[in-house]
Amino acid sequence: MKNSATIAGVVAIVACFAAGPLAFADMPGPDAAVLWHYMTEDSPYKEWGFWPDHQGMQPGRAPHGPLHKVYVNEKALNSREPPVQYGAIQVKESYNKAKELKAITVMYKVNGYSPENGDWFWAEYSPDGKVKSSGKPRGCIGCHGVRAKNDFITVHEFK
Ligand code: HEC
Fold first, then answer.
1. Where are the domains of the chain?
2. Closest ligand 1 atom, CA of 152?
3. The model's pTM
4. Which atom of ligand 1 sits closest to the CA of residue 106?
5. Are 85 and 110 in contact (CB under 8 A)?
6. 74-94, pLDDT tens digit by residue?
7. Quick one: pLDDT at residue 63?
């Protein structure tokens, strides 16, 4: 009896060690190239969902282009109120009027990355994944900052 309890304990501890690093390896750090790999290879963003109040292609405003789609991952969708959970990602595809993909901008919620601005990591890519800007760009934060109460998110209203 005592032995099997000990074995169960050891198994649990080993399982924790084995699962721990894997769980961390699951989400990328605040690095635009690694994030691109994650959202196109490990967890392709086109398989994610949309905010219930912002489905599919929608008209957009400057500077993002006339049409866009905003894909959001599980962690974002499971967030019922602001701020969204750490690990939440929003991927915005910007299209021109001819519906050609022109740019991809991303907001990724990283614990401790930027506490004064909602802990968002920001990135902008060309359609083929070339990094145009990333990190804490003043432009992204300044404009989205007017929505700080909504966790810097523009296309979705938390009710
Ligand atoms: C001048 C204001 C402005 C700037 C600068 C700006 N955005 Fe946005 N952003 C918006 C608006 C407005 C929307 C809503 C969609 C639309 O109208 O195109 C939006 C939507 C988004 C979304 C979809 C999720 C959401 O919050 O609604 C992402 C992701 C995003 N922006 C990322 C970025 C990144 C990354 C940068 C910097 C490289 C940036 N934005 C710079 C105004 C801005």
1. 28-150
2. 26
3. 0.88
4. 29
5. no
6. 999 999 999 999 999 999 999
7. 80
